[in-house]
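Give me structure tokens for this 1477-residue protein.
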Amino acid sequence: MGDAPPESASHTTEVVTRSYQQETLDASLVENIIIAQDTRSGEIHIAVLRLKIECDREPHKVSWFIAPTVALCEQQRDVIQEAIGSVGFIHHGGLDPERWTDSNLWKDVLGKNRVIVSTPQVLLDALSHGYIDLGREIGLLIFDEAHHANDDHPMNCIMRNFYFSLPIRPSTRASNHGPVREERPMILGLTASPIFNDDAAEALRTLEINLDSVIHSPRQHRDQVEGYAHRSECNPVFYNTCYSASKNFCALKQVADSMSIQEDPSILSFPENLVKTPPGPERTRFDQELSEKISENDSYIHKEIKDLLATARDIRFDIGPWAADWYIQRAVEMGLEDMSSFSETAAALQYGEKAYFIDHLKSINITPVSYEPQSIENGILTKLQALLRTLEEERERAEFFNGPYSGIVFVTRDAVLALGAVLEHHPRTKDRELFRIGYLLGPSESSHRTTLLDITRQISRKPQAEMLDDFRSGRKNLIIAAAAAEEGLNIPACASVVHWDVLNNTASLMQNRGRARRKRSPFAPVFERGGTDEARIAEFEHLERGTVGQYNLNAEWNAVEKPPLLSSETDDEFEPCEFKVESTGALLTHQGAISRINRFCSVLPSFRHTKHVAIYDIDPPDLSKGWHALDDGQRDVPAYQGPFGCTLTLPKALPPELRVYTVERKYLSKQSAYQHVAFNAYLELYKAGLLNDHLLPLTRVVEPELEEEAKDMLKDGEQQDGTASVTSQLNPWLPLSDEENWWSTEITVEGLPSLTLLTRIQIPTLSADELPILYHPRMGRMKVKLGPRKVARLSREELTAAQHTTRRLFWSPYGSRMQWPRLDFAYLFTINADPDAETWLPRRSWAMKVDEQANSERVHSVNAEAFVSENGYPTDLTWVRDNRPFGKLHRFVGWHHEKLAEEEEAELCARPMYSRFEEVRVTYPLLLVEPLPQRLNFLLPLPVSNAIPRSFFLLAKYSFLELLSPTECEYSTIIPSILRHLETTMIVKSLRNTLFPRAPLAMIPSVFLTTAVTAPVAEDPTNYQRLETLGDALLKFTVAVNLIAAYPLWHEGYLTRRKDHAVANSRLAKEAIRRSIFRWIIRTRFSPKRFKPLYLSAPEEPIVVLENPLEGTKDEPMITGRKAHKEIDEVSTKMLADVVESLIGAAYLHGGFDLGVACAQLFGLGLEWRTLPQCVEMALSRVENTEEVSTQLNNVERMLGYTFRRRLLLVESLTHASYQYDNRTVSYERMEFLGDALLDMIVADFLYRYPGKTYAPHDIHIRKSAVVNTHFLAYICLRSSLDVDASMPGPNARGKIVMQPKTNTIHLFQCLQHSSPVILEDQQLTFGRYGKMKDEIEGAFATGRMFPWAALMRLQAPKPLSDMIESLIGAVYLDSEGNTDIVRGLLWKLGVLSHLDRIIRDDVDVLHPIVRLSVWASRLQKPITYEYTEEKGLVICTINVEGREAVNASAEKRGHASQEEARFAAAEKAICMWAVG
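Here you go.
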């Protein structure tokens, strides 16, 4: 019920429970009852008390409160929540239960809330799909407005389909704190009008049976109820009929009468379509549709005009001519406005229909209404004058009793605004101090949302809840309400209630009367004097008293034995159909089958030209064949009365075997035939695997065991990339055991003495392509060779000598990050046969003798002045360091003995490095030095540079010489690069041995694998980005082929969802972690300037076991190896996914598709992988061989340069979903799905391998986008044509019959098989635009420097044109048994690859103009805005950037696409005007 508790629920004071309420509450605890009490008696208060008790005595079950509308649910939720606390509120649209298809979501709602509020349809859906167990999870069901529980209302379906099949609840149990039992929940019904027909006793008894309850009314305290529930007086308002003329109505009627259904553009196309359509179901449908439209004089436009005329007539006869004129004027203005806007309703009309509609609206000779008081007074009827008088009297009466006035006038929906317009402008009611008017229209029905001339559709009004708050607070005191507010809404007590229209039944009388709740509040129905309405009201009041009397009888009423439970009424003798999925409890009934079919069709992928609907063909047809062509005398045939059969045809997106269903002529009504054929169809869809065990479409098409994981991975697109906690990158230098075994490897660097590398691990043997190449700034390209590894048997002295040598090599450039005493390096070096060793050994020995601390870092370098005092001025010095500890190193050039100029000496002494010394003096000779090369990563190729190093002087007194030979200096700088290469190579070999231990994956070259696992952050010579781009395209294509083969019954929507899940970054990252790929991702940045040698004796850390490296995974724990640094890394999930794709790309580069698939199969991705030939074979095995195809398809083959061996594939690739004539194939969406992935793959491969180009991923992306987008592919479709010989015999100049030569051009787009007039019109309009723009576009492609984005956009080509190209690509691939070379040939033939080739050769600028402008404005740090205006049939886009002259461009106004066209054109214009680079 919509009444409030005795005291307002919004008060914080405690509500007192009255005696009659306690009596009713006590009864509800003993048995199921329906509370039947007058409005304002506080039924909701009883319900709240009952809910509180249930929460205590049923701790394991919830209570479910059901109200018939969302608005009433919200209202009652607020009341219950204030009293109890957490209340769950669930609502969804009638066709959108899929939003609640997650079983965990339902469990979460049930676990967090003790009370749940919803409409009955929500609960019915949850029960029907097996998400809620009524017997185990719900302890109490409360039905608000319980009188709805009849026939097929959702309330009754809940009881009939689920409640009565449960075990009966023990009547003696007071509470349940033990195990959960399966049993019927208790029922509590609330209603003030428990009647739905003219027999009160029958209505009450039926309601009791349906709800398994007894109707209860207080007996002991009945008088108290009457004291609180104020029964309003019935004060009818009488009026005399008097009608006046309406100018706008007459003008509208004149136009409506002149309209002929035969002239409607939507009808004119039918005869032609009938002639073209071959015999079959589609022809029968065309024939029936045409006959029905003519028989009912009904088309969309005619219905709009007729409905407006009917509404205006009702307003004229009910309110008056002024209101009718006002309504017509507003409706026509709004209709014309919508026709010129981008509204969806207007966009659905064809061009001819729009013009037809606009012409007729403009031909209505509208007379603008006058708001002069006298004009309004003269334009209202006596009925409205009676209403004005009543409102004034009731306002005065309320003031007499010192109360505020508030009133409600109930009218039909269409009359709400018209009546309100009169009251807002009439001199007697327009005073806002007296009457503050608001509107309640109720929820908008779908029919109103698609009606152009219904002015309530777009009228500005407050939300219903806000309007009710205004009414309660007094900001509004007069509500004009549609009939939707009669029932349930918590409208406060009113001074008066007026029912403008004739009451239909007793329930309406009881609901209306219930709104007038104050003492002395009248209920005022408006009657025509002398009419039949007064008698009807008397009859309704008599029935109302009888109803109240029935449920106020004593206990004998409830003691009467109830008749047995009746099954739902059926109009035939067949048993109701039911199917139950035992695993979930989901239930399918024939009553709900039609809505299930509608839901299934609604989730099929659709576009503007495709609206997937189920088609029901009744048997026999309603009208005889050709009825539309019969004379009027022949059309009058008695209607067929049954029995009926029906054929159901599902959309062409489904395979033929699942599309058509038929039931015989045995059902006594059409509705029953519809229900039973829908039941059969839905059951077959379930058996075919197109529904899950909850009997819902597969909105998440994933492997069952990963259903919950998919919920996190797919949420209508991936969310922002996250990170995963994983073990750090593999360190191959660390030994696996503590045994001190050493291995030696000889390293030979071209131009230098050989070097021995000593390691605790075995350096693997490297092939020629795995050896490093160094790029030295002075010595150029240097090859490096590695000798075979050997076991090194080192004495302690030899080991110590190698450690000292290694420290000496590393200390000069890297000593600031080292500790001199530490010698436990992970790798040791000795130089074999250093030619300068005998020279430098005595110098180091001298330094050790001179220094007091012989074994310290100070002996590594000596003061230059001290050195020359002992050794003279040698010229074989190497590195010189300035005065600072670990000061900057310089390369020694020579000694300078000549004296400098005074200015030069002063400048030398003033250098910052000498600022800490006093009285710096220049002494000779000076050290001439030059900077060391900045670039120390010798793995990177040398940049081209002609720069000459700048030399300068240092003072010997303040400088230090590094005691390293030239060979040692060279090795000091290049060893880190050699180590980096070896480390990378060992990581890759570890990856190969672990991940790819067997052929053929083991054969992937190291150079490919190294690239595949090197992250950009490492800043190595190569990284995975290009390979990832290629691997991404390959993965999507191979997944698409596997899905096409594995799921022959799946439509494109399922295939796309499943593919998206398989290739989602989150899924790829999970597989990367499962395979521990993170161990081999080279992600540590190599920076030689910050190089620090690796030590073996790093502080010991415990081995780390990562239970769940990526949150939400359920993989086996991974144990890390011994690490030198931190154990845990945070790695981007995108990086993990990218490496998987790049590995797949590497496999493809080496071994083609077979090896690429083998690599993808390694990661699983939830698919049962097959090779591409196996997939193609599986797909082809289901294709029938036939030659029975249209001869026009031969022309398509000639355009393509390819002859199909399986011609049904060609038929499928050219069949639109609207085409119903050929049931041998599905529509082209599956082929389009395959062709789209293959096109991306071939184009990506073309760009990757193009000779002389090494495009970065971004460059590949923008060029690929240029030739795979819908605009370009539509252009390819438009330009594809064939000239055919159409010569016909005819007379020549002499009159002789000869062959007259003639050629016809057939265009590819004309070969699309469809039944859509919208597609036909779009094709014609687009081809017309193409004819005008062809030269411009072709010129741009032939010689232009910029890609013609705007010109292609101006074509405004419909999507089916680009779909055709993609579907043909997919069909050719399958028919050629997976031959991609043939597909490449097709793309050259169509011009896709030739256009791409020209883009690459001539470096055409393909960056999207919108993107270019955005990047340019961002670089300038200035905002860019796009503004749209409409003028003279044009859409004008103006682009503004601060400091630049505004740029605008226009496009013909044809819909939303015109905005995009104008935006593209303006962007290209701005690029030229503003010289955007």
